[in-house]
Amino acid sequence: NAPISAADPEIAELLDSELRRQQGGLEMIASENFVPRAVLQCQGSVLTNKYAEGYPGRRYYGGCEYVDQIETIARERAKKLFGAEYVNVQPHSGAQANAAVYQALVKPGDTVLGLALDHGGHLTHGMKINFSGKFYHAEAYGVNPETFRIDPEIIRQRALETHPAMIIGGWSAYPRIEDFKAMKEIADEVGAKFWVDMAHFAGLVAAGLHPSPVPYADVVSSTAHKTLGGPRSGFILAKQEYAKKLNSSVFPGQQGGPLMHVIAGKAVSFKVAGSPEFRNRMERTLEGAKIIAERLLADDVKANGISVLTGGTDVHLVMVDLRNSEMDGKQGEDLLAQCGITINRNTVPFDPRPASVASGLRIGASALATRGFGPKEYEEVADIIGTALAAGPSADVEALKARVDKLVEDFPLYPDLDQIH
Ligand code: PLP
């Protein structure tokens, strides 16, 4: 039982390097966050040893008395947090939660209608080489070409044309709020099920700062690790009538034994997400994203052909539009990386460039709020990003990196983990 530094120094060193990387830069990938130490403890615990196929009280293995209690607590907390009738906390990931939703709500070959991938949808909403596009007949709706917003009238037209068995809400790269009530009405009009994948904005929903899809959707899926700030994994909420189908679709439909160490981490993060501190964190997240959007709308950035999709944001992320800029997404991503800021390039709707370089940047505010940032620090990071993008290749990377270093120093991340080994 040697510590990792002795058992496997090669991996120990890489683990240590990754800790230093996370501590030493500004993490602004919209789908990432930092879990609390309590979640790290769950994930590194003896729960990883335990098989527990089945559900609490109905397992196919002995010795489940404690993991039963953990899973029950996780479920009760999630139900309360989101006001849901049913929850399944076993999906290993967002993609696996979504695969179970398909299995429970539609049949292979059925038509499904989701947001196009290049307009901000997710792979599991119908991408050609994903299971969702291979086993189901995937149709897509796009954003309104003038406003770049999801427009219920466009969804309705597409639904009337394509007769989907399921309409999909939710997104991976979109800066605004959808109208779940209108989408549910469209689903009812065409006789479709309505599923919302709230992976990105689940934390905002938990904090009461974003409309909840739960009252409208037949089923809501999510990841636990984006705005919600929990361990990498998924979960599903639904009306009680879908309980049996969803349970059997997750296990044994898509998965074998649940990852009890991760489920314990989910239980902890549902508890955290119900606290006033979490609400405050989500408020800072939203404020931070707005501050970033505002800075990127300033004249010096505009002069470089750069703008902000939809002119702002209602959520935790900002979509930067580089279609009219000489700088492409790859160059923008690399420039910010040199300054110590990690973001990702992303296609934007009607993108003239291939996805490998793309014409957009997706910038998220969640992880910095977890690190403790408030409006003052977001003003500073927004100005660093704005100044870099306005200057492009002639940016003074060294000076900008020094400003990032100062923020990093003032807001230490995981100071207790320096003794990791
Ligand atoms: N759903 C949405 C909307 C997402 O953005 C993502 C991840 O990016 C997922 C599902 C998939 O989650 P995972 O990476 O855990 O499979």
Automatic annotation (TrEMBL):
MF-aspect GO terms: glycine hydroxymethyltransferase activity; methyltransferase activity; protein homodimerization activity; pyridoxal phosphate binding
GO biological process: glycine biosynthetic process from serine; methylation; tetrahydrofolate interconversion
InterPro entries given in the database record: PyrdxlP-dep_Trfase (IPR015424), PyrdxlP-dep_Trfase_major (IPR015421), PyrdxlP-dep_Trfase_small (IPR015422), Ser_HO-MeTrfase (IPR001085), Ser_HO-MeTrfase-like (IPR049943), SHMT-like_dom (IPR039429)
Domain called Serine hydroxymethyltransferase-like: residue spans: 5-385
Known pathway: Amino-acid biosynthesis; glycine biosynthesis; glycine from L-serine: step 1/1; One-carbon metabolism; tetrahydrofolate interconversion
Catalytic function, reaction form: (6R)-5,10-methylene-5,6,7,8-tetrahydrofolate + glycine + H2O = (6S)-5,6,7,8-tetrahydrofolate + L-serine
Protein name per the record: Serine hydroxymethyltransferase
Source organism: Bifidobacterium platyrrhinorum
